[in-house]
């Protein structure tokens, strides 16, 4: 009897310890199959000459040396930098302005809710439909929305080839409109969490609206701003889908980013090994940028426990 009771007592801690692993196991399996294995395969592939023949041969670092001798690389890196930096800066600025306007100046008003909902619409529209809308707006023929509008008002006499003169600007604009909502939601939630008593105390002390924003609201947004900056910048650096649908990387290579170039090399030209090597460069750049912004936001200081001084 005592032995049975003892076994039961010893069995409970073991069962209790294994339960978390049982819950995690299905998700860990999915991560391993769909993330870790493809990552390993990409790394291995980058050291081979795998192409349409599907007969890989180990070539060492040949693909990586080829990248740095690729005459397209300077323009592609420049395109990537312009696209990522401008998209991040403008989308972050607009998300911040919208969040402060709707959660501080217009807090609780129906107009603020409707305005935020309007900004959510582009992010929930299917990508193909969304890109079709932008292609219609900037269609280079007389049937295009912008050309038709400008001709009606006598601004231009002949249709403007928008995708020839300002392809990168159109790509950045389309990207910004579809990504503002993500940052807006996080920043709005952070501002909404600020106690009203802080605002009331500031007004009693005679603080201006500018002081409330800079001294109360902005310090509260440090965590979400760090997350949005890092996640969106990595997203922009590795983004290619909208660009591929909207311009295909053209005209020439004016809107080709590093990620799109990796896709084109791997899936259009069937240079899978070279495409994998280019994609690893994208990963490396994203990793360096993450470390830089963690340092810039002083992440170590942010995660330290608060100290209560006596």
UniProtKB/TrEMBL annotation:
It is a multi-pass membrane protein. This is Sugar ABC transporter permease. Keywords: Cell membrane, Membrane, Transmembrane, Transmembrane helix, Transport. It comes from Cohnella silvisoli. Residues 77-293 form the ABC transmembrane type-1 domain. Gene3D superfamilies: MetI-like. Belongs to the binding-protein-dependent transport system permease family. Its main location: membrane. It comes from the Bacteria. It is found in: Cell membrane. PROSITE patterns: ABC_TM1 (PS50928).
């Amino acid at each position: 009897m005592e032995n049975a009771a003892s076994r039961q007592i010893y069995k409970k801690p073991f069962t209790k310890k294994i339960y978390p692993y049982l819950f995690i196991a299905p998700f860990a399996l999915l991560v391993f199959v769909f993330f870790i294995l493809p990552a390993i395969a990409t790394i291995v592939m980058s050291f081979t000459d795998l192409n349409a023949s599907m007969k890989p041969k180990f070539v060492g670092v040949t693909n990586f040396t080829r990248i740095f001798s690729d005459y397209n690389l300077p323009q592609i890196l420049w395109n990537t930098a312009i696209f990522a930096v401008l998209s991040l800066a403008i989308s972050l600025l607009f998300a911040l302005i919208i969040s402060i306007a709707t959660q501080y100046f217009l807090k609780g008003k129906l107009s603020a809710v409707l305005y935020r909902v309007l900004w959510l619409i582009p992010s929930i529209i299917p990508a193909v439909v969304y890109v079709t809308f932008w292609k219609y707006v900037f269609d280079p023929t007389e049937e295009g929305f912008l050309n038709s509008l400008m001709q009606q008002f006598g601004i231009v006499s002949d249709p403007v080839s928008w995708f020839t003169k300002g392809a990168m600007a159109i790509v950045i604009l389309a990207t910004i409109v579809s990504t503002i909502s993500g940052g807006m939601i996080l920043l709005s939630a952070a501002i909404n969490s600020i106690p009203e008593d802080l605002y009331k105390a500031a007004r009693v002390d005679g603080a201006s609206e500018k002081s409330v924003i800079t001294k109360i609201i902005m310090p509260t947004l440090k965590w979400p701003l760090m997350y949005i900056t890092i996640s969106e910048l990595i997203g922009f650096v590795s983004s290619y889908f909208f660009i591929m649908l909207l311009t295909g990387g053209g005209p020439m290579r004016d809107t080709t980013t590093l990620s799109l170039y990796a896709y084109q090399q791997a899936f259009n030209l069937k240079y899978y090994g070279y495409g994998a090597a280019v994609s690893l460069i994208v990963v490396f750049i994203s990793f360096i940028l993450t470390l830089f912004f963690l340092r810039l936001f002083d992440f170590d200081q942010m995660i330290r426990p608060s100290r209560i001084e006596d």
